[in-house]
Design a protein that fits this description.
D-Maltodextrin-Binding Protein, domain 2, single chain, ten-stranded mixed sheet, alpha/beta, Arc Repressor Mutant, subunit A
């Protein structure tokens, strides 16, 4: 059976992922005309179109969707085999929030790369929700309820909020005052926590609002006030004594940190190795949490 030229498959996969000849051309560093030519060549070889050309842009038809699935599998197998034969380092792309990256992932990641020197993990941090397929990102860590249609999602860490401060400040509930509160983007977390803890006297309308939880933790480490932090992200700081937890109930949230990826990703063994490592790190982190009371958010 005749086989389609390999180059046409790579062009097709890029266009199908971006649904744009122009964006695919930018990604592949060629002209849009070259991309269109390769698409016509593939569709001519197959004897049928793979896209619906609409006024608002391209859309995969049923044949295109089926063919894209097969092309992705084939190209990933080829890339994996090539990396093995050329002794190239395998690159894994992961997207997460700045706070998760700085406080939880990066302190652990060097250990993984020592164990697996041929796997190179690139971490992209930001608060926007990425499109894994369109942006060719392998994994994402998202903070939410676990409902991600069309994607595989595994819970990494539960979410518990606890008040913390630097050793320079008294780690006592009676020392808490509104002007010393460090807020994460908004004031709602402290409001929920104080209500659940029965601290009606605490004025949560006061205090500094930080750009994100990372900034709030940095301010707490510098002794600038009290932060309401996600305990799962701060074990290193608490264990080293750089931060102290106030003797107070923790606020449990329905939200959690989830590891997200495309369902077909684990056909690549290195992706499975990295996912398993993340799950083991998360399980160990949860087990190290000392027992304590919790309040429901």
């Amino acid at each position: 059976m005749p086989k389609p030229p390999l180059d046409t498959l790579r062009f097709f996969e890029a266009v199908a992922r971006r649904l744009s000849v122009k964006l695919a051309a930018e990604e592949l560093h060629v002209t849009p005309g070259a991309v269109s030519q390769q698409l016509r060549k593939l569709e001519s070889f197959l004897g049928q179109p793979l896209f619906e050309r609409r006024a608002r842009g391209l859309e995969l038809n049923a044949a295109g969707r089926d063919y894209l699935d097969a092309c992705r599998q084939a190209l990933e197998l080829i890339d994996h085999a090539t990396a093995r034969l050329t002794d190239a380092r395998r690159v894994i792309l992961l997207s997460c929030t700045p706070s998760f990256g700085a406080q939880w992932l990066l302190p652990r990641l060097q250990g993984f790369m020592r164990e697996h020197p041929r796997i190179d993990v690139h971490v992209s941090t930001g608060n926007r929700v990425v499109d894994l397929a369109a942006e060719n990102i392998h994994f994402a860590v998202r903070h939410g309820l676990g409902d991600y249609p069309g994607l595989s999602a595994c819970k990494l860490l539960d979410d518990e909020l606890t008040p913390v401060c630097a050793p320079a400040l008294p780690a006592r509930l009676d020392a808490l005052s509104g002007e010393q509160l460090l807020h994460d983007e908004h004031r709602e977390d402290w409001r929920l926590w104080s209500r659940a803890a029965g601290l009606d006297r605490l004025d949560c309308e006061q205090g500094v609002v930080c750009v994100d939880s990372n900034a709030a933790i940095e301010a707490a480490l510098a002794g600038r006030g009290y932060a309401l932090a996600r305990r799962s992200l701060l074990q290193a700081e608490l264990a080293a004594g750089r931060l102290r937890e106030l003797p107070a109930p923790r606020l449990r949230s329905a939200l959690a940190y989830y590891l997200i990826h495309r369902p077909d990703l684990l056909r690549d063994p290195e992706m499975g190795v990295f996912k398993q490592w993340l799950l083991e790190q998360a399980a160990a982190a949860q087990n190290k949490s000392p027992p304590g009371g919790g309040l429901d958010a």
